[in-house]
């Protein structure tokens, strides 16, 4: 597989980017998104409770916590799929996001890797990756995809090691291969904010580490804010610049990866509310 750090710059914007934040936190980086006092309730149950956090460009932030802690709900707020009941989301250049037009602008710069892939089985891998850019063209356009979009799709498939399966129907691919197609679809959008909900859950650990390292290289190289929800704590420690520990809808740990020790892990996972399914 060709690593992202050795491929053509998928996310280059033609502008100089600030240096990436080191794991020690020694270098300031621009903030991609800020949330203040987020609250979400569903069916009379509190899912997120006054969550505040900053997500920086050029760094990987990993959300960890037990099932039902609120990680997926937080990601759904960040990508505009869920409107919070309270609090605010703000982005540089857009301010506090209050209107649909503001959210639309943010979503153009955002890509999400979904755990369930959200792919169309009867289409090939290449077409599924192209569909990740459908918001950039009219859905009824009779014209072929622009050359740049096709090149981006091919590069993204090469980056996840699936260029040789580009025209195979997704329904014929293995679960791990489908997950890699989902990652490629997100990369082809050239995002500034890249979200992932358990993006490596169907992959074996060596491949998960390899793709995760590539995403981290992408964040550092191109100033992308990467936010991942992971259940593999060892993988989180290996990939993250910063870890947010979520327990019962609240952030109980927010710090650099080297500070997420056994005591912090116990704080995140002990006495956690259990739930069926993800929230």
Account of the protein in words:
This protein is α/β, with parallel strands linked by helices. It has eight helices and ten strands. It has a six-stranded mixed beta sheet with strand order 6-7-8-3-9-10, sandwiched between helices. Helix 6 links the parallel strand 7 and strand 8 (225-229). The longest helix is centred in the C-terminal third of the chain and has 18 residues, at 205-222. Residues 1-27 and 272-277 have low confidence and may be disordered.
Characteristic terms for this protein:
single chain; 279 residues; alpha/beta; six-stranded mixed sheet; four-stranded antiparallel sheet; 10 strands; globular; disordered C terminus
Task: Break the fold down into its secondary structure elements and pairings.
Layout: E1 31-42, E2 45-56, E3 59-64, H1 71-78, E4 86-91, E5 95-96, H2 100-108, E6 110-113, H3 125-131, H4 147-159, H5 175-187, E7 193-197, H6 205-222, E8 225-229, H7 233-239, E9 242-247, E10 250-256, H8 262-269
Parallel strand pairs: 3-8, 3-9, 6-7, 7-8
Antiparallel strand pairs: 1-2, 1-4, 4-5, 9-10
Helix pairs in contact: 3-4, 3-5, 4-5
Query: Span between N and C termini?
Result: 34 Å
Question: Which class best fits the helix and strand makeup?
Answer: alpha/beta
Query: Could you tell me the radius of gyration in angstroms?
Result: 18 Å
Unreliable parts: 1-27, 272-277
Tell me the total number of β-strands: 10
**What's the main sheet like?**
6 strands, mixed
Q: Which range best describes the helical content: under 10%, 10-25%, 25-40%, 40-55%, 55-70% or over 70%?
A: 25-40%
Gross morphology: globular
Query: In sequence order, what are the helices and strands, one letter per element?
Result: EEEHEEHEHHHEHEHEEH
